[in-house]
Design goal:
Bound molecules: zinc ion
Number of strands: 13
Strand content: 25-35%
Helix content: under 10%
Number of helices: 2
Length: 215
């Protein structure tokens, strides 16, 4: 009855894309300050920790996160581990003998090992790979790095491939403890009107019964 949490902890230590807004919480009321409750406000990029980009993030005609369908973020998912090679887009050939069996595919690269420490040379996806997956019925792709495009990319070819294929995306996952294989994924974005992304609490479990477990 295991549930695997694949969202890293979010805090003011969480690394964000250089220039993006880090997470910060400010406590407006607190018990220690003599108030009758604790109340905070947060400022943050929505691209914090494990998050879902919406298509409005990478295309002028894209939709905000509140207008995205939920179904892709919920269902059978396949974790594929690829050989870690710095600053490289994953190619179709890197799938080797992995057959695509699920409609959601998460790539374990281990190339962004510490969510609190930014590194420039994380792995990303090739646009050809996204089209290859779309041709096999995949509706969501995920990765354990901050982006499906390399850090220096300005044309964001893989984000454009996501737009063309209407594929949903999860970035910033923590797959360090996850064995390659088939799981049930839950990673719902918040319905924040018109936003370009939302953090998600992403979990994997081995069977759907794990989600409906006895309590
Ligand atoms: Zn993002």
């Amino acid at each position: 009855m295991a549930i695997f949490d694949i969202s890293p902890l979010v805090s003011d230590q969480t690394a964000v894309f250089p220039g993006d807004t880090p997470f910060q919480a400010e406590f407006l009321m607190s018990f220690s300050g003599g108030n009758h409750l604790e109340l905070s406000r947060i400022t943050s990029t929505p691209h914090i920790g494990a998050h879902a980009d919406s298509s409005s993030h990478y295309h002028a005609k894209g939709k905000g996160i509140s207008d995205r369908p939920l179904r892709p973020y919920l269902g059978r998912a396949q974790v594929i581990e690829v050989e870690a090679q710095k600053d490289r887009r994953i190619q179709v050939a890197d799938l080797k003998e992995s057959v695509i069996t699920e409609k959601r595919v998460l790539f374990k690269t281990l190339s962004f090992p510490d969510p609190n420490k930014w590194n420039d040379d994380f792995m990303s996806l090739s646009p050809e790979l996204i089209h290859y997956l779309a041709d096999r019925g995949v509706v969501l792709v995920g990765i354990d790095t901050p982006s499906v495009d390399p850090m220096t990319s300005k044309s964001l070819e893989s984000h454009q491939a996501l737009y063309q294929t209407e594929m949903c995306v999860l970035e910033g996952l923590d797959l360090q403890k996850i064995q390659p294989g088939s799981y049930y994924l839950v990673a719902l974005p918040l319905a924040i009107q018109g936003l370009d992304a939302s953090p998600v609490r992403a979990i994997l479990c081995e069977t759907i019964e794990d989600l409906t477990g006895v309590d």
